[in-house]
Write a structure and sequence with these properties.
The complex is a heterodimer of chains A (228) and B (307).
Chain A: E1 2-9, E2 20-27, E3 32-36, H1 43-50, E4 58-63, E5 66-67, H2 73-80, E6 83-86, H3 98-108, H4 113-126, H5 142-154, E7 160-164, H6 172-187, E8 191-196, H7 199-205, E9 208-213, E10 216-221
Chain B: H1 2-19, H2 21-58, E1 61-65, H3 71-82, E2 87-93, H4 95-105, H5 110-119, E3 127-132, H6 138-150, H7 154-157, E4 158-162, H8 164-208, H9 211-220, H10 224-265, H11 270-276, H12 278-305
Antiparallel strand pairs in B: 1-3, 1-4, 2-3
Helix pairs in contact in B: 1-10, 2-8, 2-10, 2-12, 8-12, 10-11, 10-12
Classes of the chains: A alpha/beta (228), B alpha+beta (307).
Chain lengths: 228, 307
């Protein structure tokens, strides 16, 4: 359902170092894929290209059968609702409570008040945050913030959850909890694409691992381990 | 669904305004200062126009008639003057009234009062006080009268035309009136431009601090309208609240200044003006406030919605 077709990304003000070179791979539905590599390997850029936060210099990125970067601006928001995104720095709306952060995603998708009232308690339970629903982000710990972010990412039942270093700002225990939640989401049927350089997580998952080095894919293992 | 969307946008705008606390307050106060400037311009304009009006009224041409001039002839002249397009009105002052006015004007002058008593009879003739619609039109009225003076009949009853003496003053006054209006307009324009820019900048900066959130909202899949809506509602709120504050501030201010303006400028009491024109003033200031708030917010948000 996701297809990277010979994608390259070169920043015009740094022609010496291309960030991504000739990247091609396919993501099947319900897969759990970890994208690993050192800092600067191109993991974040790859995900940015997928969510259309940036454009590729060469090649195309397909979501479903649609070339993401040929979608006109005003329709892009509709495509993005089929992706749930989780970031290393959480990116919650600071003036909204946990509940409101999650409901924002549903309101943006035009869901009714009834649908919102039904879905959010379920999703809060999934991430174990029912009693913190009315807290603001600055009243939550890092782990709790990330869980709100995940809840927001899945509440619209997206086709894929894209997580860019979701455990990057968390301690090992919280990080492990986050990955367990992502695993659960995947088991319930959602495709998950996760960029990370957390060795122990990769090794414990035993799922497909795509390894990036200097902008190229050097390994693509169905049951991968963290090997650099 | 449309009403739900509108309700959501309205609610978000109100909630954001409230939760932004100090930033909202600061923006409202700056907007209030701008609206205060505009209100002051409105009041100043009223003062200037009223003063100029007063001055214009003080200027007139007086035709003094000989003591034996028959009233019917005087009234004939009055009617032909009224037919002139430049004439606003003509006041007939009888001999008795002229004497009364004269006594009143010089009541503190013992010499004049005594001389009048000595005289016994009324030395004054009747008069016509002619007011033009515009100070620039006195010249043509004066010409008409001077032509009349040359005519038989009419010419014999006129004693004096009091214009040539005032001509210089009248012309100077016309010039001052025109320049005052022009200067007033220019100053007002500059003030308005400056204060509009200040408000626009303030709102832009407030929205600048939300640029990351706008980015997040885009990534989560919100449409441009859903993102910008609440900001526009906040702009609306800035305008409405600032208007209320401004109108409230003007109340005691005009009450305090009212008597002063009356004594200094003459007829106009700024407090009475405020109360009697309350609805129009409120409407003007509200339109400016809301327009400024909404447009500034829209422009500022648009900047972060373009990739």
């Amino acid at each position: 359902m996701i297809y990277f077709d010979k994608v390259s990304k070169i920043y015009s003000n740094d022609p010496s170092g291309a960030v991504l070179i000739d990247v091609s791979f396919t993501v099947e539905p319900q897969e759990f894929i970890s994208i690993v590599g050192q800092s600067g390997a191109g993991k974040t850029t790859l995900l940015k290209l997928l969510i259309a936060e940036d454009k590729p210099t060469e090649g195309r990125v397909f979501f479903g059968s649609v070339d993401i970067h040929s979608v006109p601006q005003d329709e892009l928001s509709v495509v993005r609702r089929r992706m749930g995104v989780v970031f290393q720095d959480f990116r919650l709306l600071p003036n909204k409570t946990a509940y409101e952060n999650i409901s924002f995603a549903m309101e943006a998708a035009g869901k009714t008040n009834k649908e919102i009232a039904d879905s959010i308690p379920q999703v809060l339970e999934l991430v174990n945050l029912v009693d913190k629903a009315s807290h603001f982000p600055n009243q939550l710990s890092g782990g709790e913030r990330q869980r709100v972010a995940i809840a927001r990412a899945i509440v619209n039942q997206p086709d894929v959850v894209i997580a860019d270093e979701p455990t990057g700002n968390l301690d090992p225990l919280n990080g492990w909890e986050i990955v367990q939640i992502l695993k659960k989401i995947n088991e319930l049927g959602t495709t998950v694409l996760m960029a990370t350089h957390n060795k122990s997580i990769i090794d414990s998952l035993g799922k497909r691992v795509i390894t990036l080095e200097n902008g190229r894919i050097i390994r693509d293992d169905k049951k991968g381990r963290y090997v650099l | 669904m449309i009403t739900t969307k509108i309700k959501r946008v309205l609610k978000a705008g109100f909630v954001n305004f409230w939760r932004n606390g100090w930033v909202s307050l600061a923006t409202v106060l700056i907007m209030a200062m701008t609206l205060f400037t505009i209100g002051s311009i409105i009041f100043s304009r009223a003062l200037i126009l009223s003063t100029l009006d007063e001055l214009q009224n003080k200027v007139d041409i007086s035709v003094y008639f000989k003591t034996d001039a028959p009233e019917s002839d005087i009234l004939l002249l009055k009617n032909s003057l009224l037919k002139l397009s430049e004439v606003k009105n003509v006041e007939y002052v009888s001999r008795e009234q002229e004497l009364k006015n004269f006594k009143e004007r010089h009541k503190d002058n013992a010499l004049i009062t005594q001389s009048l008593e000595e005289l016994g009879s009324n030395p004054l003739g009747a008069a016509l006080n002619i007011k033009a619609k515009n100070t620039s039109q006195y010249a043509s009225i004066a010409k008409f009268l001077e032509d009349a003076l040359k005519m038989e009949g009419v010419g014999s009853i006129i004693d004096k035309i009091n214009y040539r003496q005032n001509k210089v003053i009248i012309e100077r006054l016309s010039k001052i009136l025109d320049s005052s209006k022009k200067i007033g307009f220019s100053i007002s324009l500059i003030l308005i431009i400056i204060s509009v820019l200040v408000v626009f900048n303030t709102i832009s900066m407030a929205i600048y601090t939300s640029r990351d959130e706008i980015g997040v909202m885009r990534l989560v899949g919100a449409s441009n309208r859903f993102i910008s809506g609440p900001f526009v509602v906040e702009g609306l709120l800035y305008g409405i609240i600032a208007t209320v504050i401004t109108m409230i501030v003007f109340y005691p201010l005009t009450m305090w200044l009212g008597p002063m303006t009356e004594s200094f400028f003459g007829r106009i009491n700024i407090y009475d003006y405020y109360i009697s024109n309350f609805a129009q003033i409120f409407f003007i200031i509200l339109s400016v406030g809301v327009g400024l708030g909404v447009i500034s917010s829209l422009i500022a948000v648009r900047r972060y919605l373009r990739s």
